Amino acid sequence: MEERRQAMNPILSDYLAICSSFREDGLSKSERKQRHTMLSEWEKKEYDNEHITIGEIRDFWTKHSKICWNNQFINKIICPQIAIDLENGGFEGLKFLFHCFCGHEDSYLNTNSPLELFCKFCKYKYEPFQLADMLLEHDEDNVDALRYKYHALKYFLEFSIHEMPTGILNGMNGAGITDIPAMLKDIEEFEYLSKKLDTPLCETLINDCRRFYPAYKDYLQSFRRYKNFVEYLKMNNIQYQSYTSRYDYE
After folding, report:
1. Can you say how many angstroms the Cα of residue 102 is from the centroid of all Cα atoms in its chain?
2. Tally of CB atoms within 10 A around 27
3. Where are the domains of the chain?
4. Beta-ladder partners of 174
5. Model pTM?
């Protein structure tokens, strides 16, 4: 272990030494505080050879993935190097950024994921979807980016109808008439990604969105004729169930 640490970049070996000083789970409050203090000091420390390669980071992540999913590690190690690589026209950083989700598949939309923290690091010069598209333009079959887009779109579609039959959402806001065409294209892309990844189609979700999106657009264009969207659905014989009744898409 000592020989391995000596060959490792100091910024990585110091981080590993701190994390190895504590058991992985079940830390007491005082232990968590102590570890946080040590990591904060590590984060502030300036290293003579702080610039490390994407390859070194990737190898370290592969061996120590559990301790790397940490804001301090991501902000000090991952984000700066990916930004440099991207600025130089490289794509290895982006490939690694999306590869970080392997083994953390339940964190695609986690605000503390390397992807989200990188966007924040860049002051939102880039958005997550934009980065995925940039990588796919370079490598159209990159599975990690495809999986991210699939799961992100699935969440978006589910969220858009989670207030049914009250209305349709576009993000956190109510969908507008001009939003619907792009939202319909999202359905097409989600279906394409499902086939590309050989993932079973979420047919119920897809069919519901295709039914409700145009209906909501039509309702908005003539809403003065109806008390609310529920009345529109009933008068136009469009079947629906409230979200809490059955929107458990898998």
Report:
1. 12
2. 13
3. 1-127, 141-250
4. 169
5. 0.89
Q: What is the mean pLDDT of residues 96-111?
A: 94
Q: What is d(CA 4, CA 24) in angstroms, rounded to the nearest whole number?
A: 21
Residues 171, 215: contact at Cβ < 8 Å? no
Dist CA 213 CA 209 (whole Å): 6
For residue 229, CA distances in Å to 17, 138, 212 come to 59, 43, 10
* Digit-coded pLDDT (tens) for 120-162: 999 999 999 999 999 999 999 999 999 999 999 999 999 999 9
Radius of gyration of the chain (CA): 23
Q: Work out the angle at residue 17's Cα, subtended by the Cα atoms of residues 14 and 23, and round it to the nearest 5 degrees.
A: 145
d(CA 204, CA 156) in angstroms, rounded, equals 15
**What pLDDT is recorded for position 243?**
66
**What whole-number distance in Å separates Cα of residue 83 and Cα of residue 26?**
35
What is the amino acid identity at position 8?
Answer: M
Q: Mean pLDDT over residues 86-91, rounded? A: 95
Please name the amino acid found at residue 113: S
Residues with Cβ < 8 Å from 39, sequence gap 6 or more?
A: 15, 18, 70, 72
The DSSP string of 197-210 is TTPPP-HHHHHHHH
pLDDT, residue 4, reads 46
